[in-house]
Amino acid sequence: MTDPVIAPEPQNPAPVPAPHASAAEPANGAVAAPQPASADSGAVGTEAADGTPARAGQGARRGGRNRRGGKGRQPATAQPAGAIAEAGAVPQAPRQTGGPRRTHPVLEQLAGFYPHLFGAQFLPLKRGIFQDLQDAHPGAFEKEDLKAALGIHTRSTRYLQVVAEGRQRHDLQGQAVEAMAPEHIHHALLEVFRRKKPRDGEDLVAKLRRRIAQAYETSGLTREAYDALVRGRDERANALLDEAFAEVAERDAKAEALLRAYEASGSTSVEQFADMYGMEQRNVGQMLARARQLRGPAAA
Questions:
Q1: DSSP label of 170
Q2: pLDDT digits (tens, 9 = 90+) for 143-162
Q3: How far apart are CA 46 and CA 40, in angstroms?
Q4: Is residue 169 within a helix (H) or strand (E), and if so which, with residue range?
Q5: Which CATH fold would you assign to the domain 21-30+101-195?
Q6: Alpha-carbon distance 130 to 52, whole Å?
Q7: Is the pTM of this model over 0.70?
């Protein structure tokens, strides 16, 4: 299955605003096309039409009471006509029961050709995938339709999630061919968390900050180099980035202190050292590896 062509999801109170849309999209030559209108766009007309029979039914009941000389029980559903018309003009999300949501026909085709990329599980697409698809299927796709379909696909939450995880970009054969750029991972993270709806008691801002810190550490870049790639113009996003940098700096200081203690201890193994300090061996190993990584550029 591929992501449906629907209107943008309702936004929860966002920890950060949306990043630049092109950050997570493959550089495929496809201009980011506006999303086609949803099949649910006719909901307003449906709701309004539903209101008309309701008023007619109420009129019939009132006529019946008049024939009985005004006696009879007042219907509980009676409302002023203006209120009914107003309610019918505003579609409510729970009432959208118009059947299954449509998927862009080109995305259906792509899922058939490349289920490993556009099927149940998504993979990040290599840059230039637009031209690759045209070359692989000459005449199969209208150029503008293919652009629109790829734009919908790469803006979908499911696609952004795999980009935010830092997975490599893949070609049409499903082979990993290119590392995901740190700035694309960062902007995908911001957008994914902007769209999330928090559960009860869930702190999405703290989760996003940890994910940013993790992405920064995984990049292997210095703070200055990473900052130059990902910092934008939004103050809230930049504040989260600074907080993530501070968290990583604190952890790095602890890792460096632990490495010095390990070197001075005379321990012959990480396991022995971890037992000596009552620490978990896995955590000690990760901290020592991080400290050695940080020493590398300085030693060089």
A1: E
A2: 999 999 999 999 999 999 99
A3: 10
A4: strand 169-170
A5: Fertility Inhibition Protein O; Chain: A; Domain 1 (1.10.1710)
A6: 48
A7: no
